[in-house]
Design brief:
Helix 2 crosses helix 4, helix 13 crosses helix 18 and helix 14 crosses helix 15. The longest helix has 23 residues. The protein contains 18 helices and 15 strands. It starts with a strand and ends with a helix. By secondary structure, it is α/β, with parallel strands linked by helices. A hairpin with a 2-residue loop joins strand 4 and strand 5. The chain folds into four domains: 125 residues, no CATH class; 67 residues, no CATH class; 48 residues, no CATH class; 216 residues, Uracil-DNA glycosylase-like domain (Uracil-DNA Glycosylase, subunit E), CATH 3.40.470. It has a five-stranded mixed sheet, covered by helices on one side.
């Protein structure tokens, strides 16, 4: 038996384990409904404890316990903290919440500060476990099995195990830690007792492959040693096969960065000039109309051919301007043209555009009656051999091209604009927006323009799991149905 608190108290609650949230919740409910002061309760760990403590008073039928739902969810996380007084803290907060419903909103309260700090510590520890678990392959009588060793700071194994089930569903694995172990046999997840590092297998052949991969993805030009050590504290290094490479990689970062810069392509791919000559109309103009006094979209589109507002024009095949009726009531704004759009000179004609068209059709929105454009009008990419890989525009490029988007908005004058992704939202609203959190919301600008926030359809294409991809497609379809209702 491990004592969690040493002061003698009238009520002693025995929990079945370090993360016995169900036992804590049941006991805390009975105690709180009987108005038992936190100072009168001692919490202990006893693995031989019965499922239900018969020594506690029964909860009265005439009284209910009402606390914020968020507290229950967050308490389930905090109970994984290693602090021996966590059970007492949680009960103290529960007891106080009955009298102070807004307690969790008081950031200066010592109990709330401690609660939040514990919650963050558990969250960080779970993240570190997900980032730094390294499996080693062994052969068993049932075939191959993968074993990993990890040393968490808190009791997070049971809470974190479902993540690894989702991530590594197709393989059988075991994660060993000093406090508990988690095993997945392809069908059932089981939680067992703690283990020793000596129980883990020796390094396997895959570690050489992993080190080769790590060495090749290491980017010396972006090296920030302090930031790296903050994200990958040294306490984890002894269990990471790639950690042995880190000192040499850091020491040689300056020379490696110079070599990388020297290898960077300075010219576009060989076929680029032919594509540009075929699709980019000849013009001697090198500056757009700074006055912006355009009377039509066609005039603006012609002027944009020679846009030099940011450096992206140098490598792009051509300016990809918006298209659609000049009086469209609904406008869609994406991020930037992709490879196929850059060649065709028309927005949303590539893979993401096909997904976009299909979902608009399913939602009952006539694409031909909408105006579709991008926040940035030139294709930004990184050359990879013969391929051009999409590169996200930076804030300066978005700001430079916002000049064109503002002119499009002024001429089209739509009733509603749909921001497809974070870059579009930044361009339309002038600030970074957490699109995944605000998805489906309508933000009204100072000028009265309504902006509906959602993801970019290319996000659907990047999801590898087919079931998740289909689920995300349905969410985007629901967003478009919401847009149609807004236009009714």
């Amino acid at each position: 038996m491990q004592t969690m608190q040493f002061a003698l108290s009238p009520f002693s609650v025995a929990l079945a384990g370090e993360t016995d949230f169900a036992g804590w919740r049941n006991a805390a409910r009975k105690l709180a409904l009987n108005d038992i002061s936190p100072q009168a309760v001692t919490w202990v760990i006893d693995t031989n404890a019965a499922d239900e403590d018969k020594t506690l008073p029964e909860a009265p039928d005439t009284t209910s316990l009402n606390v914020p739902r968020s507290f229950v969810t967050r308490a389930e996380s905090v109970i994984c903290h290693r602090d021996s007084e966590r059970f007492a803290l949680l009960y103290r907060l529960l007891w106080r919440l009955r009298r102070e419903p807004k307690l969790l909103e008081i950031a200066s309260d010592p109990d709330v500060r401690r609660f939040e700090a514990m919650e963050k510590a558990v969250g960080r520890d779970m993240h570190k476990m997900r980032a730094f678990v390294r499996f080693r392959r062994i052969e068993t009588s049932n075939g191959e099995h993968f074993v990993a060793w990890f040393e968490p700071s808190h009791f997070i194994v049971e809470r974190n195990a479902p993540f690894f089930v989702r991530r590594f569903t197709g393989m059988c694995w075991t994660i060993l830690t000093p406090c508990a172990s988690a095993s997945w046999n392809g069908e059932t997840l089981s939680i067992g007792p703690g283990a020793s590092k000596t129980d883990t297998p020796a390094e396997d052949a895959a570690e050489d492959l992993w080190q080769t991969y790590f060495r090749n993805i290491f980017n010396p030009a972006r090296l920030k040693v302090q930031a790296m050590q903050k994200e990958m504290p040294k306490k984890y290094w002894r269990n990471l096969p790639e950690a042995a490479l880190i000192p040499d990689l850091i020491a040689g970062a300056d020379e490696a960065a110079k070599e990388m810069i020297a290898r960077t392509p300075t010219q576009p791919a060989a076929h680029h000039a032919k594509v540009q000559a075929l699709h980019w109309p000849a013009t001697d103009a090198h500056a757009d109309n700074e006055d912006g006094n355009y009377t039509s979209l066609d005039a603006m589109r012609n002027a944009a051919i020679s846009c030099r507002r940011c450096p992206l024009w140098r490598d792009a095949t051509q300016t990809v301007f918006g298209n659609g009726p000049p009086d469209a009531e609904l406008m869609f704004v994406g991020e930037q043209p992709g490879d196929q759009e850059d060649i065709a000179g028309k927005a949303f004609v590539g893979p993401a555009g096909k997904v976009f068209d299909a979902i608009l059709t399913d939602a009952g929105i006539d694409r031909q009656k909408t105006y579709v454009t991008n926040a940035v009008k030139h294709f930004k990419f990184e050359p990879r051999g013969k391929r051009r890989i999409h590169s996200r525009p930076n804030a300066g490029e978005v700001q430079a091209c916002r000049w064109w988007l503002d002119k499009e908005l002024a001429l089209v004058n739509p009733r509603l604009v749909v921001a497809l992704g974070a870059t579009a939202a930044l361009s339309l609203l002038g600030k970074s927006i957490a699109v995944t959190k605000m998805r489906g919301e309508v933000v009204e600008r100072i000028d009265g323009l309504r902006v509906f926030l959602t993801i970019h359809p290319s996000f659907i294409l990047r999801i590898p799991d087919e079931a998740q991809k289909e689920a995300e497609r349905r969410r985007f379809l629901n967003d478009m149905r919401a847009v149609k209702k807004l236009m009714a």
